[in-house]
Design a protein that fits this description.
heterodimer, A: 298 residues, mainly alpha, Cytochrome Bc1 Complex, Chain D, domain 2, 2 domains, 11 helices, 34% helix, B: 239 residues, mainly beta, Immunoglobulin-like, five-stranded mixed sheet
């Protein structure tokens, strides 16, 4: 048994690791029944072929141990803990996922699911599962995919292209601010990004449960990753199953970076974007048009 | 050289289209027509407060009413999709593009019936952004932002499903896509009337669907060229 772990950690450059658990009498503990996934320990799932290496049989065991309480035996999000939880656990039978690299309405890649399991979801009951080995997390991906027939009938969408980030300048921030007004982000996220826009109180997710728009001013981590690229991806793919739509057809890539730079100014952290904006705002106080409903001549 | 090539191509097209005509099932001339009515007291539709979206509010002289159950004169029921749910001759999906409008913060039409795989174009005619969010369960669920002046969104649904459509920015906006696997359907207007045409002789199941009622079905047997009249009556409650 020890050998198995040693093997996994040593095979850093080999694509296929086959360790036979032959003759292993111990099956009481979950670790002992793992069929190692055919990936190197260092590589992330899917980075080689774009398809899961996960093993459902092992995934099922891990799922029963760690996931079933909330996501339920049928994967429909109706586990016994679900009634106490808000936001509700994901319903895997719908195969609709918030954090994707793929266009709205398409299935996520295995890597997207792997990243979600690894990251967990901030402000929800879903913790980070980083303590599980990469192999176990990969097997969970395979398990998650077993709950909906869509995975047999469809392929994951083609990940959206994220262009190289443009320089952080005050022009970029200001243009991003214009976009925040023009694309009406403020209607849900609020003029100051506090999640208190005019439509905020009416929002529901696709299961008809109330849902809050992201509050940038709280300084929370973003749901689908903390980097600028993650933020870019969020509004280009949309968060499926929630009111957050995709802007991929209406925001150009260079504009998208401007919006990212502006969104950073809404957070309470000391970023370059925020520094630039503070300086600008102090110098142009009288000229800055507030974000919100057009209060000009009717 | 080129002309000869084109001639050959034209001939090929002509022959193949002739084959298609031959292979196609006989388009009958029978029909099923009728009227959808209600009994009971229909719920009162409520005026929609659009004051949060002045560009929409000013498009309506009188407030727009909710549309969950729209009635017409003579107890007629509007926005009911009547379609052949079984027995219809198989046809390939219509390639005619359907148009769906977001105008004055309303969906026009409120209920849009379409065939599976029929192309659909969604327009934003307003001075405000909409996010169009069809809450599909069988088909993939997507959600797209459509600011004013942007080109129509192209869409298509592969599987039959009744899909509620909403705009999260304007929570009163509410409509339905009804995706069917038949070209024989009709959506009732203010007179509650429907008509299913071009039916060959056969045994059919006709379904009538209203968004907040249980769907109803009736079996109809048509002879060649026969026209039959049927009616659907929905029991409605005031709440």
């Amino acid at each position: 048994m020890r050998m198995k772990y040693a093997a996994v950690s040593f095979f850093s450059g080999v694509a296929f690791v086959v360790v036979l658990a032959a003759g292993s009498p111990c099956s009481a503990q979950i670790d002992h029944n793992i069929t190692p996934v055919t990936t190197t320990a260092a590589s992330k799932i899917g980075s080689m072929t774009g398809h899961a290496y996960g093993v459902i049989d092992s995934g099922a065991q891990v799922y029963r141990r760690y996931c079933v309480g909330c996501h339920g035996p049928a994967g429909d999000g109706n586990g016994e803990n679900a009634q106490w939880i808000d936001p509700k656990p994901r319903d895997f039978t719908a195969a609709t996922f918030k954090c994707r690299s793929t266009p709205t309405g398409t299935l996520p890649t295995d890597e997207d699911l792997y990243d979600s399991i690894t990251r967990g979801f901030v402000n929800s009951n879903m913790p980070s599962w980083r303590p599980l080995t990469p192999e176990l997390r990969a097997n969970l991906v395979a398990m998650v995919k077993s709950f909906s027939p869509r995975w047999q009938a469809e392929k994951p969408g083609t990940p959206i292209q994220i262009t190289a980030e443009t320089p952080v300048t005050i022009e970029s921030v200001l243009h991003g601010r214009e976009l925040f007004q023009k694309m009406e982000c403020w209607k849900c996220h609020g003029p100051a990004g506090k999640g208190d826009g005019p439509s905020a109180s009416t929002l529901t997710d696709s299961q008809n449960n109330p849902i809050k728009p992201f509050n940038f001013a709280a300084g929370d981590r973003f749901k689908c990753g903390v980097t600028n690229s993650d933020l870019y991806r969020d509004f280009m793919t949309g968060l499926d199953g929630t009111p957050m739509p995709s802007f991929a057809d209406v925001i150009k890539p260079e504009e998208a970076w401007d919006l990212v730079h502006f969104l950073r100014t809404l957070q309470p952290m000391d970023t370059k974007e925020r520094e630039l904006w503070k300086t600008y705002a102090a110098a142009h106080k009288a000229y800055i048009k507030p974000i919100g409903p057009d209060t000009g001549a009717q | 050289m080129k002309t000869r090539y084109f001639l050959a191509l034209a001939l090929l097209v002509a022959v193949s289209s002739a084959l298609v005509v031959l292979a196609a099932p006989p388009a009958g001339n029978g029909s099923i027509t009728g009227k959808v009515t209600y009994t009971g007291t229909p719920p009162k539709m409520k005026p929609i407060d659009m004051s949060k979206e002045p560009t929409c509010a000013k498009q309506h002289a009188t407030p727009v009413m909710t549309e969950n159950l729209v009635t017409g004169p003579g107890n007629a029921l509007q926005d009911v999709v009547v379609y052949i749910s079984a027995g219809a001759p198989e046809t390939s999906a219509s390639s005619q593009t359907l148009r769906y409008d977001q105008k004055g913060c309303q969906y026009l039409p409120h209920v849009l019936a379409m065939e599976a795989n029929q192309p659909l174009e969604i327009y934003n005619d307003d001075q405000t952004s909409h996010n169009i969010h069809p809450l599909a369960k069988v088909n993939p669920e997507w959600n797209k932002s459509q600011p004013p002046g942007t080109p129509p969104i192209q869409a298509k649904y592969e599987k039959p499903e009744r899909i509620p459509v909403k705009c999260n920015i304007h929570p009163w906006m509410h409509g339905y896509f009804v995706v069917l696997n038949t070209s024989h359907y009709s959506v009732t207007g203010n007179d509650g009337g429907f008509s299913l045409k071009d039916l060959p002789a056969g045994k059919y199941t006709v379904t009538a669907w209203q968004e907040q009622s249980e769907p109803q079905t009736q079996d109809v047997t048509l002879g060649a060229g026969e026209s039959k009249s049927i009616s659907f009556t929905f029991k409605v409650l005031p709440y």
